[in-house]
Amino acid sequence: MDISILPADMYIVVNKTVLQENDSKILTMLYQPIIGIGAVNLYLTLCLDLDKNEFMSEENSHHHLMTNMRMRLSDIVIAREKLEAIGLIKSYFKEGEDVNTYIYEIFSPLSAHEIFSHPILNIVLYNNVGKKEYERLINRFKVPRINYGSYKDITKNFNEVFDSVPGTVFENESRNIKSIHKLKPEIESTIDFDMLISILPSGLLSKNTFRKDEKELIQNISYIYNIDTEEMKGIIINSVNDKHNIDKTLLRKNARNYYQFENNGKLPSLIYQKQPEYLRNPVGNDSKRAKMIYTFETVSPYNFLRGKYNGAKPTERDLNLVESLMVDSGLKPAVVNVLIDYVMKINNKKLTKNFVETIAGQWKRLNIETAEDAMNEAEKECKKKKMVKEKSSVRTYKKEETNLPEWFNKEIKEEKNSKEEEEEIKNLFKNFIWWEGENMIKAKEIINEKKNKNLTDLEIEYFKANKNPEFKKFTDSINLNDKILMKYTSSLMQCFNEKENCKNCKGLENCKNEVNGCFYKPIIVDGNINFEHKTCKYKNKMLHDIEYVKNGYLFEVSKEVRNANLRNIYTDDKKRNELYRWINRFMIDYKSGKQCKGLYLSGNFGSGKSYLVSAMINELVKDGYKGALIYYPEFLRSLKASFGKDFDEQFNYVKKSDLLLIDDIGAENISAWSRDEILGPIIQYRMDEKLPTFFTSNLSIEELEVHLSESKDKIDKIKAKRIIERIKFITDDLKLISNNNRK
């Protein structure tokens, strides 16, 4: 609601909370980087208005605020809106005869833990202050962890200290006592569910589809993958099962595939996130358990799961499951890692969906956020199972005990190689050193770091592969340590070989790669390496053509027009600036659902009229809109030569298309039939249905009127004028006089 505020308008401050001493520190250090000093200043000024009366201030004018804060009223309004958006105040408005009155309710700031845990505030704070300052803030508010293992809990409970008292009947007024009230920022939904339901095909979904859980999932997915309502429609349509319900697993998969397609194969960073600093254990303990905790905290769920696959890419099913743990259950990265480790150890290295989700639900209810708490909970479950098995049979007990996580026993000793194994490894690496200057790794260092003989095979395989100088060039270009790269030798070899295959490829029919039309490529994420399939130029062209087959109709337009792209437009000519602005505005408005006029674009031969309009329509066709590009003279000739069904199909498709370009109107041989039976009905229909129509011509709109009036049969100025009036009604008239780019 937009309200015009005046300096004379009055306001009252109402205190809805109990402000604490630590609040000012949180406001200055954590809120100010997000909302700015002006908003913090306004909040503190409103709080000071409460000095005389702790609960409600006297009535003041906004001029009072302007004077005290030395700020313009417009800047105060902006600051107030920031406070509203972040949950520090709520504003109410009442219209008066002379002046209006406002009520500003004050709420407490969130705690440091709540801010650092918030999925959006935490990210905004990090982006605003940078990594170094963010880490300083984390350390400033971090509570030191104390090991209570050697202590006994001797705390007395209430009944042990106080005697019981007889019950007394009196009215409890506690509801009126002030307490701390906070407002979490309300994140506006990117999904308009009313609109979504209205644009989905009728009968596609059951009546009870959009329950709270489904809406929450759709909202979460839309936020993570930056998907709007229109885009979500297509994803949902492809995620409906036989019972007319949304398949949640399929929904996540389709959303992820859509995101990857739109972002050149990249995935959002969710499953690549590591445990937040403030939820990590202090470093320093060298115990086996501490090392496990450190691993859980410093490795992303994706890379942790990949480690379980011995460096290979995890299956789509397991990635979906891990993603759902973070999206649906809201588990922290380290907790997800513990869950993966725990389940795979007690469940024969299998991540059974129902089993995993059951544990995840329990941990969510227990509000488990740290690796240590997750491990403790897993150990409790193991102990319970152990006790049950002990009671039933010794045999079952022993079987269960072997399935305990390796970190369950706190006294596990570090395993060392025998002298014979050490000697064997030394012989294997007798002459084995890397040749890369500063990165030289001698055998002794490898022995100290790699105590698993299986890993030596990886190292030897990597060493052999690098004897190929071209492969060596390829791995050098990745700029990662050899110790990291050697874990992925087979994947790197695939990337290298497929890259070589692409050099001499002539088309999709000759593709030698594992996935037709794609090549395997390494991607660096957080200092680690991932791999993804990228589509080649031939595949991209095929996808482009498929998109046109689905959404586009092309009739006798040139190859240049067909492939027109906004990224390739010529921007140095200032004469085109007005047209560029028009195109940009049209695309924004049209995508937002506004009713938009089309364009009548006239100009000299070779100025790029057709290319520019076609590029815009091509871009919208890629987004799923139906578009038709017709070279008008040839279109008329084709219609005249056709009859029956073919005529109706062509004519109706053009007439009813979401977007229509009639290219080079005025270049045709005019007849009463082409004007009155073809052009007139097309324009009339599109005007009635409010469908954007675009015309390009070498004739001005006045010259086109003359052209349309002079048919072979007779001069008919009235009919021509009627058509021109409709063209003017549905289009903006622009001219493009520029250099001939076809020379």
Descriptive notes:
With 743 residues, the protein is of the alpha/beta class. The protein has five domains: 10-109, Arc Repressor Mutant, subunit A (Orthogonal Bundle); 209-267, no CATH class; 277-402, no CATH class; 419-535, no CATH class; 540-736, P-loop containing nucleotide triphosphate hydrolases (Rossmann fold, 3-Layer(aba) Sandwich), CATH 3.40.50. 51% of the residues lie in helices and 9% in strands. It contains 33 helices and twelve strands. The strands form three sheets. It has a six-stranded parallel beta sheet, sandwiched between helices. The longest helix is centred in the middle third of the chain and has 22 residues, at 371-392. It starts with 9 loop residues before the first strand and ends in a 7-residue tail after the last strand.
Q: Might you state the CATH topology name of the largest domain? A: Rossmann fold
Shape verdict:
globular
Write out the strand line-up for the largest beta sheet, numbering strands in chain order. 7-9-10-11-8-12
Number of discrete domains? 5
The helix content, as a percent range, equals 40-55%
Strand composition percent? 5-15%
Q: In the CATH hierarchy, what is the superfamily of the largest domain?
A: P-loop containing nucleotide triphosphate hydrolases
Oligomer: single chain
**Main β sheet profile:** 6 strands, parallel
Total helix count? Answer: 33
Q: Compute the gyration radius: what is it? A: 35 Å
Q: Care to count the β-strands? A: 12
Mean pLDDT: 76
